[in-house]
Q: What sequence folds into this?
């Protein structure tokens, strides 16, 4: 505690110095941990302990006074002296005195300037305006602290402040919870006045702190305090939570633009404060505090009758934010459910407010209520019944919402449509609903259908999705026919495209659900399907050039594609056949297949991409089905050209969709045949188009898709490769593909001039894909490549790539076996399954093993291959270089320990799983075994000398750097000490190997 007092005194003089050299939170954490080990009920020397508790509480208040100006600032994340004019800011002490929270509820209309007269600060500040972090201060500590120079960033100051505030909260909470209460009847260590004072402190911090880390941990300490108050035997203390709750509700109710309560940052700590007070109420009670609070808050959250004013908007925002926190609080359990209806009303009505802050808070509250009512997402498809409930169950649980939602739909509040559709889209009719059901969903259907006329695209789409569960399966054909008949038969001046689009979407979603439903009623000879087609055919102009709106044209094409795909066509059924002929005619006359000029070929504008994708989806269906299905000679003739047109389309979205459909079809055919490769292409496909696209595709995603398609095609259909009219041999095709892929891999840095040989390029690509910073998918792909290359490249009896590139592949494999991600390590360990049997030790069964075992077996296998290849000397040199590692480039000089280059949030090691010391010892073990191989050729003396020089340099630099570390480096510079220790031991192990080799050469 004495050390903490000294640090607080330094922080009171200079927070920058404290943040740089002796942040407060460490000592405070240690004191809290020590108190947790005490058995406070059996303490002796009560008078002395009472003084300790009093001193600790006072010390906590001093710490809070030092750091609170930062965490209560309007912008705590960037607060540092250099953010203000450095010419007039002579020191941090003056800034801490001058700066006050600026985020008043009038949105920072009153700016303050610092007083330039103070001369109290004695530190030297230097602004670094040229480095990579401009918010950086360099300070020099006084001589009594060592006079060392430190770089202090805004993040370091903030972390020091909010962590100190956190530890203060935890320490005060521990004192209140663990120390016995002093009363006239019982001698304790903490008094009622002190408990009440701590409560006032938490109240100030929770209501005024702006940094989330500070008030979240203050909430934890405050919960401990309120729990202690309720369990205490003092009537005065037991009444404090209710008293504080009434006071804060009154302050929220009366808050205005001049209030100190934070109206931004989702009301900051105010919801946490009220949560803590409500959680202290005993579960067995009548929950009177909760009921009173919810009544007050829901009344505040409702829009005022006299319109939005400054005096009503701020309390409404606070109320919405607090309600959101209470509905999310799992400790309140089912006690909060009776108030869900009122909260939903406040959220829906608040969404209509002209004030953005109210709409934003209402949206967040609505999202919380949806999760509270329907539960968390329980499936990938959010529209599945797992994430919904019946209308009967919903309105039985929340009966007040039934008349409210109906009333809102009758008012036609456009701004509320979105939220209403989100609710209605999660309901579906109950089988028990009858025509006379008082809570049935039938009254909502006209409202949902009327949303087809909305001017908001998203609203029309949500209305279409919401309508599906409201229509019974037996009523889908008649409802669909009615909707289609409401569309115009001919274009005219009064055509409303929003209405057309919304209606088509409703028909599309209804038919998709109906046509894919295996339990739909089957009518004789498809009478209902014929009725739908009969209503659809007179309106086919909506999918042609006669319709000027590309959005509705695309939706019509989607509808026709689904109808032609899912409807069965008996031999005597002429309706479906006619519809397919007319649909094919629309496709063949479209801008995608038959553009009329360059403008249509490069079609652009609102909805153009969506329209072209719809056409492409229909074209892939036509191209991949037998021509007889479409029943026209045009289909037979154009089917061969459709895919080629799609793959040559200038719009990459069309190419990507066509390639995805191709890949899906090929994979399905492979599954049907239950074999690894296709025996033949299942439909007429010009493979030359694919090979040409692979060589010239400019879009990365499309290039990846076309290569995936080519990987599943039979080899006989690929060779020889064609680039337009020119035939390429394998080497030329490989050169094109590797060069193209390598360009995408090296997009962030320039390529070197030495990458001219194709094998070297491929090896460089594999090495880059194995690095730690690569995404998981890239490393998994690299592991697959290396695993499949094991029998033909890594373990071949000859060296098809040469010893240099073969060893590079082995090194990449070992890197993946020590990767941070378990999936990558497991995938790389599969290489053991591909090792030829004659290379495995007798008695070892070839099969999957764990990554550590695969790593050890791999190094042993490589040492065995060195003997097979006759490359023992090269192997000794390579393994020794691996043993030394490349840490010398990072820690080889004291310059790397320069504090000028240290930043608080600088990215450290990406791989925390790898054990460099274990890897070095494994290599040392196999090196010692390899050095004893009989009749092994001697290593070149020049190479031994080079390795010895590296070992000596690493040893000396590690020793110098270890000496330069501060006292007790295991604790004060843990990371640097660990790296230097590993570097030194690696050098020692390598020196042992080199000594043994030199001894063998001499003998």
A:
């Amino acid at each position: 505690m004495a050390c903490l007092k000294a640090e607080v005194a330094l922080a009171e003089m200079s927070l920058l110095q404290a943040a740089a050299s002796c942040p407060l939170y460490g000592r405070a954490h240690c004191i809290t941990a020590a108190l947790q080990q005490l058995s406070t009920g059996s303490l002796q020397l009560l008078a002395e302990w009472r003084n300790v508790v009093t001193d600790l509480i006072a010390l906590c208040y001093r710490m809070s006074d030092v750091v609170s100006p930062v965490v209560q600032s309007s912008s705590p994340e960037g607060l540092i002296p250099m953010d203000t004019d450095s010419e007039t800011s002579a020191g941090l002490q003056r800034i801490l005195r001058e700066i006050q929270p600026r985020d008043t509820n009038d949105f920072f209309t009153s700016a303050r300037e610092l007083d330039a007269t103070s001369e109290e600060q004695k530190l030297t500040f230097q602004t670094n305006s040229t480095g990579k972090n401009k918010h950086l201060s360099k300070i020099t500590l006084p001589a009594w602290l060592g006079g060392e120079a430190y770089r202090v960033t805004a993040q370091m100051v903030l972390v020091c402040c909010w962590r100190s505030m956190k530890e203060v909260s935890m320490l005060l909470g521990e004192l209140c919870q663990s120390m016995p209460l002093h009363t006239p009847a019982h001698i304790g260590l903490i008094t009622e006045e002190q408990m009440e004072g701590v409560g006032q402190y938490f109240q100030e911090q929770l209501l005024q702190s702006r940094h989330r880390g500070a008030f979240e941990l203050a909430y934890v300490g405050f919960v401990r305090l309120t729990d202690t108050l309720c369990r205490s035997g003092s009537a005065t203390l037991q009444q404090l939570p209710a008293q504080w709750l009434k006071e804060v509700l009154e302050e929220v109710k009366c808050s205005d633009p001049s209030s100190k309560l934070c109206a931004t940052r989702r009301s900051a700590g105010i919801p946490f404060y009220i949560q803590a007070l409500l959680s202290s109420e005993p579960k067995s009670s009548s929950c009177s505090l909760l009921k009173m609070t919810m009544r007050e808050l829901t009344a505040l959250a409702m829009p005022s009758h006299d319109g939005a004013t400054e005096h009503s908007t701020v309390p409404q925002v606070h109320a919405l934010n607090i309600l959101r926190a209470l509905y999310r609080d799992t400790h309140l359990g089912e006690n909060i459910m009776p108030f869900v209806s009122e909260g939903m009303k406040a959220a829906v009505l608040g969404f209509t407010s002209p004030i953005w802050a109210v709409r934003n808070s209402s949206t967040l509250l609505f999202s919380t209520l949806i999760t509270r009512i329907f539960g968390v997402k329980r499936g990938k498809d959010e529209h599945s019944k797992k994430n919904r409930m019946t209308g009967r169950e919903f309105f039985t649980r929340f009966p007040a919402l039934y008349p409210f939602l109906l009333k809102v739909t009758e008012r036609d509040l456009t701004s509320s449509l979105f939220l209403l559709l989100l609710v209605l889209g999660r309901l579906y009719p109950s089988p028990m609903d009858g025509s006379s059901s008082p809570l049935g969903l039938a009254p909502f259907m006209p409202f949902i259908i009327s949303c087809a006329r909305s001017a908001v695209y998203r609203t029309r789409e949500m209305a279409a999705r919401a309508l599906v569960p409201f229509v019974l399966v037996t009523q889908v054909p008649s409802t669909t026919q009615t909707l289609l008949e409401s569309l115009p038969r001919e274009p005219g001046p009064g055509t409303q495209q929003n209405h057309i689009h919304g209606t088509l979407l409703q028909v599309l979603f209804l038919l998709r659900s109906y046509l894919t439903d295996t339990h739909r009623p089957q009518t004789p000879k498809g009478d209902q399907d014929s009725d739908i087609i009969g209503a659809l055919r007179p309106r086919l102009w909506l999918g042609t050039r006669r319709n000027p709106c590309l959005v509705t044209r695309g939706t019509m094409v989607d509808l026709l594609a689904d109808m032609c795909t899912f409807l069965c066509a008996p031999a005597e059924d002429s309706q479906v056949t006619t519809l397919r002929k007319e649909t094919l005619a629309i496709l063949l006359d479209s801008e995608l297949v038959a553009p009329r000029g360059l403008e249509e070929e490069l079609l652009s504008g609102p909805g153009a991409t969506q329209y072209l994708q719809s056409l492409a989806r229909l074209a892939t269906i036509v191209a991949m089905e037998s021509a007889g299905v479409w029943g026209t000679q045009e289909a037979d003739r154009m089917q061969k050209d459709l895919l080629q047109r799609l793959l040559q389309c200038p719009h990459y979205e069309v190419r990507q969709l066509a390639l995805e459909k191709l890949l899906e079809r090929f994979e399905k055919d492979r599954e049907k045949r239950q074999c690894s490769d296709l025996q033949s292409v299942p439909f007429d496909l010009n493979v030359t188009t694919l090979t040409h696209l692979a060589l010239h595709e400019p879009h990365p995603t499309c290039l990846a898709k076309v290569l995936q398609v080519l990987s599943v095609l039979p080899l006989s259909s690929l060779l020889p490769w064609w680039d337009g009219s020119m035939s390429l041999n394998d080497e030329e095709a490989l050169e094109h593909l590797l060069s193209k892929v390598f360009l995408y891999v090296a997009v962030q840095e320039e390529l070197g001039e030495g990458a001219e040989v194709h094998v070297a390029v491929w090896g460089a690509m594999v090495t880059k894909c194995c690095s730690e910073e690569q995404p998981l998918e890239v490393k998994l792909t690299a592991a697959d490549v290396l695993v499949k290359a094991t029998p033909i490249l890594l373990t071949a009896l000859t060296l098809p790539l040469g010893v240099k590139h073969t060893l590079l592949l082995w090194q990449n494999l070992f890197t993946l076996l020590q990767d941070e991600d378990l999936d990558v390590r497991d995938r790389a360990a599969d290489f053991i399954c591909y090792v030829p049997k004659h290379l495995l030790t007798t008695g070892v069964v070839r099969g999957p093993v764990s990554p550590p075992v695969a790593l050890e077996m791999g190094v042993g296998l490589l040492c065995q291959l060195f003997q097979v290849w006759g490359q023992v000397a090269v192997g000794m040199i390579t393994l020794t270089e691996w043993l030394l590692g490349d840490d010398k480039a990072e820690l080889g000089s004291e310059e790397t320990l320069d504090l000028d280059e240290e930043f608080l949030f600088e990215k450290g090691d990406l791989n925390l799983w790898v054990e460099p010391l274990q890897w070095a010892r494994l290599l040392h073990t196999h090196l010692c075994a390899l050095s004893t191989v009989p009749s092994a050729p001697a290593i070149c003396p020049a190479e031994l000398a080079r390795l010895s020089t590296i070992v000596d340099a690493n040893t000396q630099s590690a020793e110098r750097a270890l000496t330069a570390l501060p006292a007790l480096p295991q604790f004060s510079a843990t990371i640097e000490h660990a790296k230097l220790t590993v570097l030194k031991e690696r050098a020692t192990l390598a020196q042992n190997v080199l000594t043994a080799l030199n001894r063998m050469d001499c003998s």
Summary: The chain has 43 helices and eight strands.
